[in-house]
Structures are given as C-alpha cells and as structure tokens.
Amino acid sequence: xxxxxxxxxxxxxxxxxxxxxxxxxxxxxxxxxxxxxxxxxxxxxxxxxxxxxxxxxxxxxxxxxxxxxxxxxxxxxxxxxxxxxxxxxxxxxxxxxxxxxxxxxxxxxxxxxxxxxxxxxxxxxxxxxxxxxxxxxxxxxxxxxxxxxxxxxxxxxxxxxxxxxxxxxxxxxxxxxxxxxxxxxxxxxxxxxxxxxxxxxxxxxxxxxxxxxxxxxxxxxxxxxxxxxxxxxxxxxxxxxxxxxxxxxxxxxxxxxxxxxxxxxxxxxxxxxxxxxxxxxxxxxxxxxxxxxxxxxxxxxxxxxxxxxxxxxxxxxxxxxxxxxxxxxxxxxxxxxxxxxxxxxxxxxxxxxxxxxxxxxxxxxxxxxxxxxxxxxxxxxxxxxxxxxxxxxxxxxxxxxxxxxxxxxxxxxxxxxxxxxxxxxxxxxxxxxxxxxxxxxxxxxxxxxxxxxxxxxxxxxxxxxxxxxxxxxxxxxxxxxxxxxxxxxxxxxxxxxxxxxxxxxxxxxxxxxxxxxxxxxxxxxxxxxxxxxxxxxxxxxxxxxxxxxxxxxxxxxxxxxxxxxxxxxxxxxxxxxxxxxxxxxxxxxxxxxxxxxxxxxxxxxxxxxxxxxxxxxxxxxxxxxxxxxxxxxxxxxxx
Length: 639
Description:
By secondary structure, this protein is mainly alpha-helical. The protein has helices spanning 2-14, 32-35, 39-55, 63-66, 77-83, 90-98, 118-131, 140-165, 181-184, 191-206, 216-219, 225-240, 269-287, 306-319, 337-340, 346-350, 363-366, 417-422, 492-507, 511-523, 529-536, 546-560, 567-573, 577-580, 592-595, 599-602, 624-629; strands at 326-333, 391-393, 407-409, 424-425, 464-465, 486-491, 585-588, 605-609.
C-alpha cells in the first residue's frame, strides 16, 4: 500500500493533463488499518474508488456508443475465426444478436466482456465511507469533501447499473466478511426505489463538493457539485422517461415476494422534478463559468477559411480538453482515433496498421443530420430527397466540404455544419490529418472510398467515418502523431437540450423550450426551430405540438451528441432503439473485390447486416450463475 501511495504522490506532482493519479487502485491485500492510517493512504484509497469511473472513458465499454446504431465495427462471425478474434468488440457484437444470459456481453454485474465490476467499486466506496473518519489527524473539511466524492461515485455506479439492468439490489453499506448467507443474498429493489436512492445520495454529496476545481494541476478530474447537479438532472430525466416510467413491457417483472419491480402507471410529475433539477444544474454551470467552446487555433495551419473554422468550433467542443463547455471530463485520453480516422494520404493508405479506420457509420446515421436549412432531409421541401443516392461533382459552393469536381453522392450536398464537422465520406474534405490548407484543391480525404477495405478488421464497412472523434492536429502516416484529448462525459448543450425535453414533457411547446433548442442550433449556423420549420419544412406545424416538438428534440440530441456515448442511452430511455434497429445497417459497396475500384461499383447501396434487437434487449440479462448464487434475484424479463 505504501508503494501505491508513493506512486500516487509522484503522479500528483508530475502529471498535468492526463492526471493518472485517479487511476490508482489500492492494494486489495492491505489491511483496513494501513489503508486509513494517514491522510495520504486514505486519499489513495479514494482514488481507487475513482478507478472504474475513469475506465468508462473507453467508449468501447459504453453501451451508449457501441449499441446505439451510430457506429458499427466491421467484423462478422466468420471473420472472427480467420482473424483470431477482435478485442474490444463485445458491445458491437450485441447488435448481431450475440447477447446471452450465460455469458453476457458488456457485463457490468461481474466485470466480463468489456464490462466493469461496478459492485466491487460500490463496495470500495462503502469501505471508504465506513473508515475515512478513523484517519488520524484528517481535517474535518477534507473528510467532508472526500466523503462527498465517495457518495457521488457510489451513486453514479448504482445509476449506471440501473440504466443497464433496471431494478438492482441497493448496496448501501459494506457487509462484514463474516456476513451470513441471508445477508449477502440481497434482492432487487423497485426501479423507483433505486432511482430515489441515487438522487438522495447525490443531494447529500452536493452540499460538500466544491463548485469548481481551483487547483487544476493537482485535482483536475475530481467531482464537483456542478457535475453532481448535472448528473442528478440526467438521472431524474431517465427515471421520468418511458422505459422506466410505467413501462407496460416490464409490468410482469416481479420479485419473488410478488413486488412489482417496474411502476405500472406512468407518473407525469416525474418530468417536472427532472425539469427543476435541469434548471438548477444549468444555473450552477453558469455560475461555474460554463459556456460554449470558442475555437482557438492550436497547431501549424497554412490556410483556414471561415467555413473550416466553423466546423472546428463544433469539433473542438469535443477534442479540446477541459474547455468551458465540458461540464464533466474524464481524465484518460481517448485512445481510438486510429479507428475513427480515414486514410487521407498515401502513407496512411499503405500502412493499414497505423489507421484501422474501422469505426463505420451506417448511412442511416449520416442521414440523421439536417439539411443546411435546419430541418430533416426528408422534410425539406427544397432538398432532393428522392435522388440523394445519385452522383454529382463537387462545386464551388461546397469547396471547403467536398473536393471540387469529385463525383459524390448528392446526399452530401447542402447539409448543416454538424454533418461536415462530424461525418466524413468519399470525396469529403478532411481538414487536418496532415493537411492544413483548405485552399488545396487537390486534397480529398483519400478514403479513397475505393481502397477503404484492406480486410475485415482494418477497413471501414460503410464509407462513412466518425470524423468528430479525431482532432485536426492528429496526423496518420508512416509516422503518426496523435493529438490526445480527455473524454468529455457531459457538455453544456446536452444539459440545455435535456431541459428543453423536460419542459416540453411537462407542458408542451413554449418560448423557453424553443430558446434552449435554438441556443444549440445557433452554433451550427441554423435558424431557430420555428423559423426553420415555417420556411422550409413540408410539415410546418410540427414544432407547435408536443409530439412534434418531442421528435425534434430527440433528433436534435442525437445530432448534437453524435458519437459521444449518449445516443444509445437516450434511445433506450425513450424506447426508440428498437425502431432504429428495425432495418439493416447499410453503406456503400466498399469492398474492392466487388466494386472493381470504380465509381459505379462503389456507389451501390448494400446491407452490411441486420441488427438484432427486441423488447428484451432494453434491459441487460444478469448472468445465470449469479441467479444460482443469489436465489433472491430474478432474471431480467424475457431472458
């Protein structure tokens, strides 16, 4: 344990942006007496409580990303044998129908298959809370803050489990090692009891957390009251949402004593509670200095137009770490740029090991983004939706988005800025990745749509890339230079849109609802919701109804938060993920074995695979073995 403390102290003194000190895990064999023998040992144990939280920065562990339908991983069952398997793809393969109760994928109950053992993390938090006040000489103010951090972590770990499994046991205290069998066989609590427990813990923690981190060099990444208030708002909005609020699909899930684990009647007042929490969270964020990211040039640039700068202002909200828009950022660097990047130069194209390029965006996700008129592509009366798959050459009007003269799908023209900032496609200009001159007419993101598929593991399956995840400063080639950034877990626009959603659910359309949606749209260069629909939509009355505005808010969140590990959670709580998964994942014919490196061969719409998703997939299964060891548990319904 002393070695762990020395490492932690060394990292505190030597790290700045990565803050690895939060990754410290206490030695499990240390005695409780040594773990809490002084302030340094106690703080090291607290950092261990943070460990699994920091691990969530790996978006491959996040069901909100891997099972959202935003990105697919191009490896199928036959390729697994040929290529010897592919690490880290467990979440993606859930969509192929591989989820099961005997050995669940993304298992956060036991910590298998890209999941993390969150019960272990909760137990560590409970142990810390039971022993922190035994630390000799620990100042009360310091103890209060550390206790509040552990309370937040315990609340968040419970919340993550609730989102996955619905009703869960509540582990409020650390059970002694000599606990009886009956004591450890804890049954699940009702969904509402679980949510209320989390909210009460957050309320307790908020009072003793700092609003901001003053000493960023030593403490960046630790929990603040601003973060806790934002999480509370999200927790309450999740509780109010259709998946958990009177869901008839789960009315039959009962505990063995006959207790219904899901509420059987929807309670609309839950939305008001969530709206109030959103309002408080926004006020706290404003007081802490939160604001939209403003682009700042960081790197050697030959030429950058206003058009390109507007795109980088959108992308930089993600890739510029700790900017004022990021309410909550996790310390570990995002490690999968080479999976999201395209091969934009000859060196990268010839070195498939430098750029795997295999986070593949289905065409349906690319079509989610609005036209440049700020309405859905199938609603814009001035946009040629029927002919979106035909080809036309890049022109002067799209010089900074599409290579001039390059034959490209018509659906890539006349789109909003977030489309060009977040998604890349054959023929798209990718500012960065070695090219920082947007007046270079010869530059194209040489995805070489036609050479994007060297094999099943190192290729893009659809012809669309998650450009948003790759900073323009990063370069891939024979020698690669990564511009690392810490993972943004929650941004200010997410809170604005959550508030708009809650207000609309409480009382329908209002000036305040439009205001918070329009604040997000403005950075993308779009008019407000009412103006855009009135002028350009073939359904101009849509924003004036509660149901219509709900659909707009849902789409706005999916666009604004695309590829950030949020859409999958939103689609689950709205009970809309089944609809997203109803059709096949499609893309262009990227395989040179069948497209012959020709434009005609490439631009053939193909079905990559049909995702498998039904009602039972909204709630994850508990491993069968756990039901045997704890007979008081009941399996998630339909499993």
